[in-house]
Design goal:
Helix content is about 50%, strand content about 15%. The chain is an alpha/beta fold and about 240 residues long. It has a six-stranded mixed beta sheet with strand order 1-2-3-4-6-9, with helices on both faces. The protein has two domains: about 190 residues, 2-enoyl-CoA Hydratase, Chain A, domain 1, CATH 3.90.226; about 45 residues. α1 links the parallel β2 and β3. The chain has eleven helices and nine strands. It is globular.
């Protein structure tokens, strides 16, 4: 269900559960394991997350979820822990993660996209939180990271979807392209990222994740600490001698 290939130092993770990458427990566990493995792999400086199905991810496998968690509360709690572990593994991965999105990214699929660092969206891409239409709640807390306040609440309350074209228009998505250009554009961005120091990229990701919920003063203090740590590395000392940065 999850395939990993390497193009130089770009790890390409492909979601591949027919027909729409509906997420069951095994799928989520594989995603978690994959991102934890890539986070520890020095050969991967950046991760490109994509799908080879007809859409990026249509969300939770509602049929499987209903049969696996409809019993005791402990079973539902276990399912929820697996879901949280998957989202955390993506968001907390020390490598930059690019989501290359085509077609639907709904519910948990939108949450996956929101856990990534950068979005590249094809013209066919659209996003939403349809859970309310079947009496459930979705991944709104993750979606808050990318959707503006009023828009997020509209899609959460109505189950409406938002096309990538609109998100590109309002600046949520910078990289927007025809579907047949998605692979090339997302890989071009990945190559621009991996042209930089792997150590610096990991420090940058850790720093950005850490300061996201800090005050400006505390966040900048933490960034300074990360910078000092980098300057103590051999690569940092060499760069400082060369550029004076």
């Amino acid at each position: 269900m999850i395939n990993v290939d390497y193009i130089d130092t770009v790890a390409v993770v492909t979601l591949s559960r027919a027909p729409v990458n509906a997420m069951n427990r095994q799928f989520m566990e594989q995603v978690t394991t994959t991102f934890e493995m890539l986070g520890d792999n020095p050969d991967a400086k950046c991760i490109l997350l994509k799908s080879d199905m007809r859409c990026f991810c249509a969300g939770a496998d509602v049929k499987q979820r209903g049969t696996s968690v409809s019993g005791e509360y402990g079973a539902r709690a276990g399912h929820n822990r697996v879901a949280r572990a998957m989202f955390n593994a993506i968001a907390d991965c020390p490598k930059p993660v690019i989501a290359a999105v085509h077609g639907a990214a709904l519910g948990s699929g939108l949450a996956i996209v929101a856990c990534c660092d950068i979005i590249v969206a094809a013209e066919s891409a659209f996003f939403g939180l349809p859970e309310v239409t079947i009496g459930l709640l979705g991944g709104a807390r993750h979606a808050m990271r990318i959707l503006p306040h009023s828009l997020l609440r509209e899609v959460a309350f109505t189950g409406a979807t938002v096309p990538a074209a609109y998100l590109h228009q309002i600046g949520v998505i910078r990289h927007y392209c025809p579907d047949d250009k998605l692979a090339a554009e997302s890989m071009e961005l990945a190559r621009a990222i991996v042209a930089n120091s792997g150590v610096a990229l990991c420090k940058a990701k850790t720093s950005l994740n850490t300061i996201e919920n800090m005050s400006v003063a505390d966040g900048y203090r933490f960034e300074q600490k990360m910078t000092n740590d980098l300057m103590d590395t051999d690569a940092g000392k060499a760069a400082f001698r060369t550029t004076g940065l």
